[in-house]
Specification:
Layout (H helix, E strand, L loop, with lengths): L1 H12 L5 H30 L2 H7 L6 H10 L3 H4 L12 H10 L15 H13 L7 E2 L2 E6 L2 E11 L2 E13 L14 H23 L4 E12 L1 H4 L10 E12 L3 H14 L1 H8 L14
Antiparallel strand pairs: 1-3, 2-3, 3-4, 5-6
Helix pairs in contact: 2-4, 2-7, 8-10, 8-11
């Protein structure tokens, strides 16, 4: 009986977790749960990205789990997902020394390059991959006739990413015909604006893609030429189309990469250019007319 009593005393002396211990356990469980949810969310977002986007930002399908795991405990996906930078993050000198001795590949983090906020670019791709509805945009232009063949368009507001947005200023673009085409030559012709739109769209893509691939650009220039036969738009021939019969774009590009890599950047921009798609594939256009009501 004495032995049993002492055993009971020993059992009763084992400390039980107090309120603070229970709170600490719950807090730790909450952190683990939040980390796991972040892993799953990041993994799902990355898996939603299609293969060409993954190729652009340098992520392989086999690396998705690793990136999701790293992201849960460290910085956002935009800082971890890309190939883009030659700067590395090392927490201490000892690791620096170990890295230099073992010559193991170093992780690169996204940094701004070529005037592109690369982390924001990668974060946008990641966000849209996880929520495709954010990709729905509508751009608008308001145009008014001035005189003759001269008109002016204003671009200010647009919708997208789940809301309405405005440019930091109202941008205006004028169009006119040259004197040889019965205009006053107050502005470029509408068909010249098409060439500008194509060039600027391709150039923007080149800047973004190069930054995502960690390639610093020094020069990007293009010449865009469009051939048109006026017999069509003047109504003199039903066998000639009204618009361009062909467009040629020539790029001069220089940067910290091989000629083959630079050419691939241009070709990838072509593959993802919205204006190139509009020009080469066409787009349905509807026209509505509103006139003053008759008295």
């Amino acid at each position: 009986m004495a032995h049993d009593t002492s055993a009971g005393e020993r059992i009763s002396s084992v400390p039980r977790p107090g309120r603070s211990g229970v709170v600490a356990m719950a807090s730790r469980f909450g952190r683990l749960l939040a980390r796991e949810l972040m892993r799953r969310k990041t993994r799902a977002a990355l898996q939603a990205l299609d293969n060409h986007l993954l190729k652009d930002i340098g992520i392989s399908r086999g690396a998705i789990d690793r990136i999701a795991r790293d992201t849960a405990g460290e910085r956002r996906i935009a800082d971890r997902a890309g190939r883009p930078s030659f700067t590395t993050s090392q927490p201490n000198q000892r690791r620096n020394d170990m890295t230099s001795k073992t010559a193991s590949p170093q992780k690169r983090v996204a940094v701004a390059m070529n005037g592109v906020d690369t982390p924001a670019l990668l974060a946008t791709i990641n966000a849209v991959g996880g929520q495709p509805e954010l990709a729905k945009f509508q751009f608008r232009a308001k145009s008014r006739w001035i005189s003759g063949t001269h008109s002016e368009s204003t671009m200010h507001g647009f919708s997208g990413a789940g809301g309405e947005h405005k440019h930091k200023a109202s941008y205006k673009a004028e169009g006119d015909h040259p004197a040889v085409l019965c205009g006053a030559d107050n502005a470029p012709t509408p068909v010249e604006w098409v060439l500008h739109a194509l060039a600027s769209c391709l150039t923007a893509g080149i800047g973004n893609i190069a930054a995502a691939r960690g390639i610093k650009l020094r020069k990007v220039e293009s010449t865009v030429e469009g051939n048109i036969d006026l017999l069509g738009l003047l109504g003199l021939s039903d066998q000639v189309r009204n618009g361009y019969q062909g467009i040629k774009v020539s790029f001069e590009i220089d940067g910290d990469a091989t000629p083959e890599q630079l050419e691939k950047i241009v070709m990838q921009s072509k593959a993802r250019s919205a204006v190139f798609d509009v020009v080469t594939n066409g787009v349905p256009v509807s026209i509505a007319v509103k006139t003053p009501a008759l008295a």
